[in-house]
Write a structure and sequence with these properties.
With 261 residues, this protein is mainly beta. 11% of the residues lie in helices and 47% in strands. The protein folds into 2 domains: 110 residues, Immunoglobulin-like (Sandwich); 117 residues, Immunoglobulin-like (Sandwich). A hairpin with a 4-residue loop joins strand 15 and strand 16.
Length: 261
């Protein structure tokens, strides 16, 4: 009986110890200390709750740990990764929003009919075994148009511009642009950065009446907000421009609420 029990006990002990050695991880885990949307040259927004994609590569540009794609979410007052990232070697982290589990970075498809803001980190954050805590800064990749008409409610905007394209979260480059009509409800419109040629913006008011305004030759730049203020003429058949301003994109309440869903 002893000859049977002793080898079996020895086998169980050896197997248990072997399992601990294989499963244990001694490398430090990557941590996100904060994540901000840069709203101007000197300001930052508050933390937001939406999942942020994390594309991680080696210094040579290869997917980190064979995958390369993670996400981080803000819960219970702290940021957490969807799965651990063990920092075994130097690497680069590219953050982006919106995130989907189907993403295949670094190039992602964009559909402007969805009117979703696009954020990316511009510059990769380095990681290494001795430096695993990141403060992520995100920047606006699109242009934003904001239209108001004095004494009226704007219920729709439309512009012929790139509808679908591909966006490189590492370089900020837009490629494979396919043009069409991009529209939104309300007085705000997201567009892919581009130079307009012979284009007019269509503005719809609550009354149902529509007006056009030429934006021919306008260069819409990434991360900039273009504000157009109009009033109706006496006959109410044309729009008169009151002011046009261009500034760094500043988060408004609607945008912050959108991110906090």
């Amino acid at each position: 009986m002893k000859k049977v029990i002793f080898p079996l006990a020895l086998f169980l002990i050896t197997a248990a110890c072997g399992g601990d050695e294989n499963d244990g991880k001694t490398e430090p885990e990557m941590k996100i200390s904060s994540c901000y949307v840069v709203s101007s040259s000197s300001g930052q927004s508050e933390n937001f709750f939406s999942p942020v994609g994390m594309y991680i590569t080696s210094e040579a540009g290869q997917p980190y740990e064979g995958s390369g794609v993670w996400s981080a979410s803000y819960n219970s007052g702290a940021w957490a990764m969807d799965k651990p990232v063990y920092v075994t070697k130097a690497g680069k982290v590219y953050a982006y929003y919106p995130y989907s589990s189907n993403d295949s970075p670094p190039v992602l498809p964009l559909d402007m009919t969805r009117q979703t803001d696009v954020l990316y980190s511009r510059v990769a954050s380095p990681i290494a075994p001795g430096s695993v805590s990141l403060s992520v800064k995100l920047y606006h990749a699109l242009s934003k148009l904001v239209v108001s008409v004095k004494g009226e409610e704007v219920t729709g905007l439309s512009l012929s511009s790139p509808v679908t394209c591909r966006f490189n979260i590492c370089t900020g480059e837009f490629t494979d642009l396919q043009s069409g009509q991009v529209a939104s409800t309300g007085g705000r419109l997201f567009v892919v950065p581009h130079v307009t040629v012979g284009k007019e913006m269509l503005i719809t008011l609550k009354s149902g009446k529509q007006y056009t305004y030429s934006v021919d030759g306008t260069e819409f730049r990434a991360g900039e907000s273009y504000t157009y203020e109009f009033q109706l003429n006496e006959d109410r058949d044309k729009l008169e421009i009151l002011d046009i301003s261009v500034e760094d994109w500043i988060n408004d309440n609607n945008y912050n609420d959108y991110l906090r869903r």
